Amino acid sequence: MSSDKSAEALLKAAVIDRLINSGVLDESSVLVSELTVDNWTHRTDLVLANGRLCGFELKSERDSLSRLPAQIKSFSRHFEKFVLVVAKKFEKRALELIKESSGVGLWIASNNGEITEKIRPRAKSISPEASISLITATELRRFLTANGIKHQKASHRSDLVNLAKKLPPNVLADGARTAIKTRFKEVHQRFLLQRELTGSYEAIPALRRTTGSRPPIALPYEAHDLTKYPTIPTEHPDLIYAPSGPVIARSRR
Predict the structure, then answer these.
(1) Per-residue pLDDT, 69
(2) Which of 60, 162, 186, 251 is such that its CA lies 20 to 30 A from the CA of 26?
(3) With contact defined as beta carbons under 8 Å apart, do 56 and 30 qualify?
(4) What's the pLDDT at 5?
(5) How far is the C-alpha of 223 from the C-alpha of 7, rounded, in Å?
(6) Angle, nearest 10°, between helix axes 169-198 and 137-146?
(7) Who has greater pLDDT, 247 or 113?
(8) How many CB atoms lie within 10 A of CB 14?
(9) Does residue 206 sit in helix, strand or coil?
(10) What is the DSSP letter of 239?
(11) In the predicted model, what is the mean pLDDT of the chain?
């Protein structure tokens, strides 16, 4: 792991620990890492989906702020709360940038990993277009059906979007939250299990949504300690040799 990646992961772990320790992340909440928004033009470092959608953009001391103005503009449109988390050396520049974006929160990360809230984020409504953009085509079909709107199974996304626009903004915002929670719930739970074993920093890879085979969750060393189990006698009548070693065959009755 490069030093840049280490700095990014350390900051993300510190933010996650703050959210968990403060009680903001409850049983109905879901954490999402690297969520793309705005037609895949921007990727949010961290999203907390609970009663609202809260986005977090993280800038470690090794990052550049060149893309930050565009990110602030985009994330402010797509999340009901948005928090910018920056290393101490970026504090002055961050304050200058968010003055023009009302409602944006600001957290400052010190060199020892402590995070201080400089500006508290303000909740706001997001547009119907922003809510719909956070929902996939498959999720849109389920969402429209759940709200009693008929549609063709083969409808293109553009047709589904036009139908969804007929719904009230608050219904669309709730649909976006529900879709994201459902989509990432399993990954979130996998991360929490891994975090219990290794801590937030080492568990960061488990928070990434993957395709194909699921990354295995590390087990405590004791679970692999075969000395805790009795030795299988070689003369046992039901002894068989499996690929993993000698085992006792299950009896059939």
Answers:
(1) 94
(2) 60
(3) no
(4) 58
(5) 32
(6) 120
(7) 113
(8) 21
(9) helix
(10) E
(11) 85
Of 2, 57, 62, nearest in space to 35 by CA:
57
**Could you tell me the two tokens for 121?**
């984020």
How many Cα atoms sit within 13 Å of 164 on the Cβ side?
Answer: 34
CA–CA distance, 101 with 78 (Å, rounded to integer): 13
Tokens coding 24: 């903001």
Tokens of 36: 């793309």
Q: What confidence category does residue 4 fall into, taking pLDDT thresholds of 50, 70 and 90?
A: low
- For 120-223, strand residue ranges (E) read none
Beta-bridge mates of residue 107? 85, 117
Return the H-helix or E-strand segment holding 53: strand 53-59
Whether the full predicted model's pTM is greater than 0.85, yes or no, is: no
Is the pLDDT reported for residue 188 higher than 90? yes
Find where tokens 């429209």 sit: 144
Rounded to whole angstroms, how far apart are CA atoms 102 and 153?
41
SS3 157: helix
CB 49 within 8 A of CB 32: yes
- Phi then psi for residue 19, to 5 deg, are -65, -45
pLDDT at 52 over 50: yes
